[in-house]
Write a structure and sequence with these properties.
Elements: E1 11-14, H1 30-35, H2 37-43, E2 47-50, H3 78-90, E3 94-99, H4 109-117, E4 129-131, E5 142-143, E6 151-155, E7 162-169, H5 184-198, E8 204-207, E9 231-232, H6 234-237, H7 243-258, E10 261-264, H8 274-278, E11 286-288, H9 291-294, H10 310-326, E12 331-334, H11 343-347, H12 365-376, E13 381-385, H13 406-417, H14 422-432, H15 435-438, H16 469-473, H17 479-491, H18 496-501, E14 503-507, E15 514-523, E16 526-535, E17 541-544, E18 551-555, E19 561-563, E20 566-569, E21 574-578
Parallel strand pairs: 1-2, 1-13, 2-3, 3-8, 5-9, 8-10, 10-11, 11-12, 12-13
Antiparallel strand pairs: 4-7, 6-7, 14-15, 15-16, 16-21, 17-20, 18-21, 19-20
This protein binds 1-O-alpha-D-glucopyranosyl-D-fructose and calcium ion.
Length: 579
Amino acid sequence: MQTHWWHSAIAYQIYPKSFMDSNNDGIGDIRGIISKLDYLQDLGINVIWLSPAYPSPLADEGYDVSDYYGVDPRFGTLADMDELIHECNKRGIKLLLDLVASHCSDEHAWFKDVIKNGKTSPYYDYFYIVDVPADGTLPTNWRSYFGGSVWSPLVDENTGEGDKNKLYLHSFLKKQPDLNWENPAVRAEIAKNINWWLNRGIAGFRIDAIINIKKAFPFKDYPADAPDGLSNISNMLEEAHGIGEFLTELRQKSFDPHNAFTVGEVFDIDTNHISEWIGENGYFSSMFDFSATIYGAKDGFWHNKEKLTAEAYKSCIFGAMESASKAGAFLSNKLENHDEPRCPNYYLWEGENEGENADKSGITDEGKKMLAGIYFCLRGIPFIYQGQEIGMENTEIIAIGDVHDCSSQGQYYSAIEAGLTNEEAMYHIRRLSRDNARTPMQWDSSAYAGFSKGIPWLPINPNYKKINAAAQLNDKNSIHAFYKQLIALRKNPNYAQALIYGDFTPYLPNQKNLLAYTRTSKERIGKKTLLIAANFQNEPQTMPLTSPIKKILINNYEDIKTAENAISLNPYQLLILKL
Ligand code: TEU
Ligand code: CA
């Protein structure tokens, strides 16, 4: 297997709007990020994925790009971005930007020109535009990811300009028209933009919603799956073939010449096809493992999504490891991102009761450290989402009117339409809203958590006095300190081979709520085996040992209770042992 620099990457995702605000307007910005690079360097990460900071109406918080060549004034200037690239590189940190090319904003010049000039616009075929069917119905019954039909009239709502007899396709918000990748001019524009950024010194891209660039033709209806009469758009995507041609072209024209690192946001692919995506000659360097994200997701509605159990998580990651290693592929592993709830709430045991009666006894510091240890030692690249390293938790969400996230709005509406009460619907919004990950980073216990001196665009999580970076930086038992230990272990030349390239083998996979595996490397002086073992429950259990412990490398408790050929594990205990 060919080795690459990014095999040993430890990545950190920054959501710019919520990371650090330098000018106190309540919105995070690039100068704020620059001011925290020393913090990140001290943590030990060596790659940053920056969520979009391009000019945007921020209808989907920047995932609706109105200019691919700039920086939104709220986030700073292009000069700030150049400085960020430079300051990262100076610290040995590689910067990845977010490539949002399955759609743009309806405020992008291309779309505005189409609204203005209709069919005579040179950009008309940059989008999927169809005539309103003669009977006034919709061309297809596909449901957009954020709810409602994917079709909207080709009209600017504010000015009335446009053509109401035509409809355009948007897989996400109405303000996010899909780009027509069948059109070679669109592909050329995207390739040009990628090269432009790579030439500025970034190392690569995280690639947004890429599965959506290929549609199934001819357009048709799929079986309705909810009271709205629409059908989840993934039903269509399943029948779309040929995405590989687009992605190979992109790789050859843009990524390969720069030796760029690319990590795809790839959902819903058959795991048998993983090598096409990220094998030796795959479209991308890596892609995220979303198996735990989509677990129990069924139809895309949050109110039908099952809770992930320890056993379910085990089968997710063990399955992902198996298919990735068969394909010789390096997955990107994560617990959180800007679209998902905070990991303590999603992965640890949390009682059903809410509010004052909520039983959060399952959410402990040990549990948070355990989660970190489990995914950090998997084969692949660990990504940390901002705030995860200090154990940030889901925020308080009182009513739907307080929710900012457009996805939550659509999900709430669908839940009500499916017959849930307001309280029932809100239960699902609280557990899965994207706002949970987007509350500002909790830097210290001062007003607004040290994120800003102005009122933040999204309220700070009320727990910031207890959970913040400053409180943890000088505490050797903090979650932050634990992440530092894990990062240092991955970098330690004695264990790097095993942790990066070592074989992955499940350990006692049938023992309930024990999540354990070994990583074994073949080295000059023989084999090296590390055992990563987690007691994934809030009560003790005993784990048999098949070979003696040579060294305890990481432990989220002070001590370790060994009996003969066994360890008696504390609740949520996580051990990394050299065997
Ligand atoms: O996410 C794509 C997205 O919405 C998926 O989570 C989708 O729901 C999934 O395919 C369902 O299985 C990206 C960004 O991460 C997100 O923030 C944006 O809102 C979205 O694209 C649109 O750009
Ligand atoms: Ca700001």
